[in-house]
Amino acid sequence: MNLSVFRQTLPILFGYLPLGTAFGVLFATQLDYAWWVAPLMGVVIYAGAGQILAVSLLAANAGLVEVFVAMFVLNARHLFYGLSLLGQFRGAGLRKLYLIFGLTDETYSLLTSRPRYQDRRHEQEIDFRITGFNQCYWVIGCALGALLGDNVVFDSTGIEYALVALFIVLTIEQLKALGDSVPMWIGAAAAGIAMLLLPPAHQLIGAIAIVTVALLVQYRRIRTSQAGKEARHV
């Protein structure tokens, strides 16, 4: 099972290792903390953008309350799509707590695009392992970057493309799994509208809000159409 999970998480591995390393280097060069605090953040916080933001705020001597509020706002997007997995995680016992904690954008995409079978308990075990493997990749990257940060010259030019490439791969996998390109085009349109109408600081939340409303409208239309067809058959 672990070999199968490893193969499924390879795209995440190639995205998380360089990005985690970049975070570790940033941590080591910006903050005067022991190197092991960087992977510890990967264990207890596990939020890429959130951890990078935390480093910037701590380097500016921001208070813990300010750091907490900023990270909550940054990661509020998880509230939108996390709800869709409540049924999938139902009955997982204590593992459900970790599945919720370890839900990142990339893990969500992997959990919702992979083939699933009738044995719910077995599927939840695979979900649990996928989530754990992904966090391990991130923590290893954080540790490598923090250890090497003060000893190597790290040129991060272009590294931001690693995450873009990862999302492209995951989008293609989602498209193959769903067989429906409408959500992808709705998402692209929502992102474009947000970029045109909103300032950069609010574009992500704005795009999520737009695509959520659009998908709810589409879902309502599909349900109404299906109900009409059923009524005609009766």
Automatic annotation (TrEMBL):
GO terms for cellular component: plasma membrane. The chain crosses the membrane at residues 12-31, 43-74, 182-198. The keyword Iron-sulfur does not apply. It is found in: Cell membrane. The keyword Transport applies. Its main location: membrane. GO terms for biological process: L-valine transmembrane transport. Keywords: Cell membrane, Membrane, Transmembrane, Transmembrane helix, Transport. It is a multi-pass membrane protein. It comes from the Bacteria. Pfam families: AzlC. Belongs to the AzlC family. This is Branched-chain amino acid transporter AzlC.
